[in-house]
Each structure stands twice: as structure tokens, then as C-alpha cells.
Design goal:
By secondary structure, the protein is an alpha/beta fold. It has a four-stranded parallel beta sheet with strand order 2-1-3-4, sandwiched between helices.
Length: about 130
């Protein structure tokens, strides 16, 4: 006789995750490591599950076509995600137009953008 097995029951929705994103125009691995720790500590203190930190290295701020950012958007499309966390708005860009394009890309996925330093420059955020 084979033992009976119970069917798997999904009683709760899949756990939502938080992703991090970093832009390092000058790829300094020590600094990138410190930023990763900052994001992880921020998520831990707020009870968020940090799934992964995506990093673009050596990309100019005005460039919006980025391998790491594209991978982030792909991940956002695949699973329930609460937010994308960046240490500062400069990790999207220092270019107003690029910030606007990248923020819209994140918003289209239904995900929030959380800036750790909280200093959001209204011109950068709303200006196109």
C-alpha cells in the first residue's frame, strides 16, 4: 500500500520581496559592498525580505538602457514585489530626464520606489 499524500494547499499569497538597485558610474567594489549592506540593513529594520540587489557598473548617469536595470524590471514582472530600494536618488541617475524615464519604468510594474536617504528632489522626480 502506498501512503496517502495530502495535496499541497496554498493558504497564503506568495511572499512579496524587495529588490535593491545600485548605479556605480565608477565601479568601486568596496563602495558597492557598503551600499549593499546599507540596503540590507534598511530592509531588515523595516521587516522587508531583500531578494537581490541589482547593480550597473560603469554606466553614465544619462544612459537609461542598462543591463542591471533591465534585469530588475524583468524580476519585478515575474513576482510580487513591494518595492525597489535605492540608497539615494542618484542611484537612478543625476540626470533629470533619465530619472523620469527610470521611475516610470518602475511604476509601470506596480512597484514603489523607496529612497533610503529620503531626500527627494522634486525637480528631479517630476521634471522630464
Amino acid at each position: 500500500m502506498k501512503p496517502e499524500t495530502e495535496p499541497v494547499r496554498l493558504s497564503a499569497p506568495p511572499e512579496s520581496s524587495v529588490y535593491g538597485y545600485l548605479l556605480a558610474e565608477v565601479p568601486d567594489e568596496i563602495q558597492i559592498g557598503l551600499w549593499r549592506k546599507e540596503i540590507a540593513a534598511f530592509c531588515e529594520t523595516r521587516g522587508h525580505r531583500l531578494a537581490l540587489v541589482f547593480v550597473d557598473r560603469g554606466i553614465p548617469h544619462e544612459q537609461v538602457a542598462r543591463i542591471g536595470f533591465t534585469a530588475l524590471l524583468d524580476a519585478l514582472a515575474l513576482r510580487a514585489t513591494q518595492a525597489v530600494v535605492v540608497p539615494s536618488l542618484d542611484h537612478l541617475s543625476s540626470n533629470n530626464h533619465a530619472i523620469s524615464v527610470l521611475r516610470r519604468s518602475i511604476r509601470r510594474t506596480g512597484t514603489d520606489l523607496v529612497v533610503i536617504d529620503g531626500e527627494v528632489d522634486d525637480v528631479k522626480v517630476d521634471g522630464a
